[in-house]
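**User:** You know discrete backbone vocabularies at least as well as I do. Would you mind producing a protein record, from residues through to fold? Write it directly below this note and I will take it from there.

**Assistant:**
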Amino acid sequence: MPYSEFSGDFTQFDARPMSPAIGAELLGADLTSLTDTLVEEVRAALLQYQVVFFRDQDITRAQHIAFARAFGALEIHPATPKDQPDREVLRIVHGPNSRGMENAWHSDVTWREQPSLGSILRAIELPEVGGDTLFSNMVMAYEDLDEDLRARLCEMTAVHDIARVFAKRLGKDTASLHEKFPLMEHPVVRTHPETGQRLIYVNTAFTDHIKGMDRTESDTLLKFLYSRAAIPEYQCRFRWAPGSIAFWDNRACQHYAASDYFPNTRIMERVTIAGDRPYLDADA
């Protein structure tokens, strides 16, 4: 449902903002009982807050998948083992033999032609302390730039590359990865397809360079744009607990999984909703 069409108060939960910039806990929502009204209101809250959180949700993997599917078709990540049941689920396991590697600001799967709409992450096993996830508002990051830089960025295209992260993780060489997932071009500034807002759409994990720009100049500009996500005034921080779930809008924000709990164990399961090809509406 388009952002502009929702009006009125939420009836299925109370939305408690996590910060002035981004994020809200949806208190009282029950994900074991999906209704059209609940899905409609969660989507409206997602568009308003960019990331929404649920507490004390005792749901199964099948219910996790069903909740995600209520928002669209689901992706299968190439890191998911081919023999795993429920291949829509990406299981992320870190512990004594695996230090967390998601501790960089990023937007998921921007190496796809159609990066994801959003991801729904469920806590399975948590360390006693640590392992928080941070989120950053990329609309605010764009709007706070000076007018001349915003105008220049809107003329630029960036190249995104799966191999930057997953060549090593999947044990594949760059050429073979690119056969299945070729380099992908997306605008440096994209228009959110539901809210119409503009936002910075490059990230340190998957963006390789700005097309047609000298490499040194590209690296310098990208480093500056990456740094915008780290500004605390654009952020919220979520402390996980048993039964916690986070649902973020991958088109609007970036996230950072704090890897401060090694060698303790943290196990999460993620189901990801397919999105559409990023674009910039030059007339908006």
